[in-house]
Prior knowledge:
Layout: H1 2-5, E1 12-15, H2 18-27, E2 32-35, E3 48-54, H3 62-75, E4 76-87, E5 93-96, E6 106-109, H4 113-122, E7 125-133, E8 143-150, E9 174-175, E10 190-191
Parallel strand pairs: 1-2, 3-4
Antiparallel strand pairs: 4-8, 5-6, 7-8, 9-10
This protein binds S-adenosylmethionine.
Amino acid sequence: MPYLAARGLGPRGIDLAPxxxxxxxxxxxxxxxxxxxxxxxxxxxxxxAGLVCWYSLMYLAPSDRQAAFGELARVLKPGGYLVTAxxxxxxxxxxxxxxxxxxxxxxxxxxxxxxxxxxVTDAGFAAVFWGGRPAEGQEDSPQGYLLAQRSSGPPIRAGxxxxxxxxxxxxxxxxxxxxxxxxxxxxxxLRLS
Length: 193
Ligand SMILES: C[S@@+](CC[C@H](N)C(=O)[O-])C[C@H]1O[C@@H](n2cnc3c(N)ncnc32)[C@H](O)[C@@H]1O
């Protein structure tokens, strides 16, 4: 939130878990945080310039995904951006939470980049930038990063020159552009400049 606010934006945060919202309010007083479900966002149609979904789409059950991605598209202005980080995998369900010591278990789906791209495309976005890296340390999967733009005109052609590149100080310090047929996660690392 401070990162976005420092760039002149007016960020607001939501999470399904009341405890996450309590901690967010405690750690970042002065920002708006609300308990809400990304499957039914408390925002008007075309009311937001951008959406950040950081490791939160991976809890969506398959039956919820179409509606949830549609909801993301609904609240974004045409031309607005969705950026998401996710654990990348084969889209099959895994049981998460066992190692947290909190006594809570939940379903996690490490979406395949192909499914992620299909979901955003079907909802009216065009994928304009892909990043990824292999698993590191204790991580059990590669990590994926996707920047997608809500379509405002003709669809952006896959592989076309990007209408907008992340700024050079984008938090992900490196990324690889995705090209048709490329193996994933990308083996090459391209530093943005
Ligand atoms: C791995 S945490 C990431 C939290 C935060 N985005 C961050 O980067 O620190 C995943 C969060 O997604 C939230 N979440 C899962 N399903 C959600 C839903 N349907 N709507 C809103 N939040 C959801 C969980 O409550 C959890 O706090």
